[in-house]
Predict the structure.
Amino acid sequence: NEFPSSFESIVRKILRLLYHVVAHIYHCHFREVALLGLHAHLNCVFAHLTLLNQRFNLIDPKETEILGDLEAA
């Protein structure tokens, strides 16, 4: 059960795109998320993506600086 040689590049792309989706939700839709009472879930998803990236360094730091203040909080 070996991973394909392109596994890491695929995971990097998926994580980068998910990070962009989360950033978009925070930037454009956070009010609606909060009104629905789902902000804790969004924060949890963001925390998991951040920890995964910190552990395996999969996203270029330039890609994550947009949510750097939130990450530091």
